[in-house]
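RESIDUES AND SHAPES:
===
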Amino acid sequence: MTEDTDRIRVAVIDGQRLFRLGMIGLLAAEPDIEVVGGSAPGPAAGALVGRTRPEVVLLETELGSAGSAQGMRVLLTASPRSKLVVVTSRYDARLAAAGAHGYVLRSAGRDELLVAVRAAHRGSGRVLVSVSRETFTQLGRAPGALLSRREREVMVLVAVGMRNSQIANRLYISEGTVKRHLTNAYLKLGAASRMAAVKKALSLGIVSYGDLENSETG
């Protein structure tokens, strides 16, 4: 059984009571997650987050709605170390600027929501987990499915220290194509650098240490 000290402490903020209770029930059923409370947006949400200091705050909002960005700032001011995961109807590039560490689409299912919460908790620094619902679904089926076959091949070679020119020569593709695959991989992994992408790929099981050994002898 998971020790309480190892569990991810999560607060759920949503204006629709039934949806909020549903998310709380879903999260509370996971052995590695502890729900510290739920609230509608507003002063009560700030008070809850400030009092409980959760590691992850799951917030339903739309950036275009009145006060949404301000509401996000209030939550992060109340608990600066909390990772904010936004539940929204569509991806918005302003999410990261507003303080989000991750997002999940409102239409997502159980697996997608849990992936978003756990990914935000694992992440260091401010990283936007900009992954589509379809990609999250693939990730739930198999560790390597988050990246395409070629993106995964490129990530393996990055992990063993190859430069873009070396990767291009190994895979018989152009450096421009290597850069395109890296850009896609960074986006899917929620990473901003080669090192961060490698760490995320290893932690998710997309790239294994066996892959690294094989690539060096290949």
The longest strand covers residues 33-39. Residues 124-143 have pLDDT under 50 and may be disordered. The chain is about 50% helix and 15% strand. Residues 27 and 33 are 6 Å apart (CA to CA).
